[in-house]
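Thread title: Can someone regenerate the structure for this chain?

I was given the following input by a collaborator and told the matching structure tokens would be attached. They weren't. Posting the sequence so someone can regenerate them.
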Amino acid sequence: MRLGRVFTCLIVFVVALFCTIDSQAQDTSNSKRAMRKLSKFLRHLEKNYVDEVDLDNYVDIAIESIVSELDPFSEYMSKEKTKKFRDFFNNKSASIGVGYMIVRDTVVVVRVLDDSPAFRAGVRGGDRIVAVDGKNIVGADRKSIIEQLSGAVGESVSLDIYRRKDSERLTLKLNYDIIPTPTVYSYRVNESVGYIQISNFTKNTTKEFYAALEELSGVESLILDICNNTGGDFMTTINIASAFLPNDALICYAEGQNRSRHNYYSKSSAAKFDGNLVVMINEHSASASEILAGALQDWDRALVVGRRSLGKGLGQQFFNFDDGSSVKLSVANFYTPSGRRIQRQYEMGNKDGFYQSYKESDSSLYDASIYQTHKSLIAGRTLYSGNGITPDIFIEDDSLIRFTGEIADMLELCSSDFVVYYLDKYSYERPAAFPTCLSFVANVQISEEDIEQFINIVSERAPQFDVSTISDEDWDKIFAFLISNISWQLYPTVEFRQADNQLYNAIYKAAVSVVSDWDSYSYRLQPAK
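Best answer:
Regenerated them for you:
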């Protein structure tokens, strides 16, 4: 342990050298000197130290220490994490095909995907998974549970299950398999308006997107929802932007200290959409999402509705090591076609601070004295740089059932318990009276018995919270929140999204209003006369 602390101190010293140099010439000189010194130290350690030393471990510590002092997005990843990261974006993640909640230290299956290994093995909603391959997972931390419920394609796994409904214990054997995870959901709002949500950008997203666009053929207006989309595969973003822009239109460019400017242009695509376009964003729209929204805004191709995006405009590149691990380093800044810098300011070595410093309703969003301004490329509108993507139409909140303060803390502790109680009560089956998610969410009632159960859960799980302080208005919102969470488990995702949008999503409601009265808004996208 002592050697580890000494070595870490050395690395911090090396990091300081990197961070405090004053010029490029000094950077080259000091960097080489620091690397020579570190290399020499490692040789001395290996050849002369009194005990055997695991240098691999200390090299990992060294890399992690250096990377932790950089920007918020550079990251050192172990061999295992590198593989999982790449499998996710290539849609090659293997799992058993269940959705679950961790309630009171126990994994409760709340959804079983059709034709998944779990479905074929007979796993049901409500099953408690108590052991994996004979190893008890009750009380295990979330990370450990995720790791144990995922594995290599074809690898067998044994699940010990307690079926509460039948008071039955059983062991089920199944094989891990690739479970395709859709990233695009779409539906018709009405005959003339279509809606497409992109949850993230993977290798399969382009194909899914164009399939959705084909299904919506004939609509005059489109709502493109990239709220909560934190990015992903960069070239997928280029492919999707190409559906809305002429061929060879500049989508973005990247430039860095050691990277010359590189432009990215739209290209021929499977289909083009030339109708009215609204893009939904919020504070969780980041990276590739911001590039897409920024390009469509710069070319006056779309009106952007919602809340300011995160402001993650640094592009990363993977550098691989022989042991399968990798480091993801930020190598360039991304800029929109008009020259806007997407990246928000950050403090080196303060990753948490970057996320905590985001102010969703900052009054200075449209202040030209604070943020550099640029002009859109067709209409010449004023746009703002260096602070993510600022929407054309700002919406104060993106959900009508969002909570803050004590109620939010209470629900974080208690909502999963109530959802599982409710699903247990109704055997994880859709009520016959509510064939669609919208009919369920809009009409189902929380019974007096259910309310009493919820209050009991609060008393046990959040005893510091006084339920008598909840107003009637907040009770209505709490019930809506709980019903929404229950419906997420009972109905297909696209049905849930449609119901949630229609009833509770403030940004969506604003987007529908804009496309429904397009003539009142489209003047913003036209060249000034």
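The CA atoms of residues 437 and 487 lie 6 Å apart.
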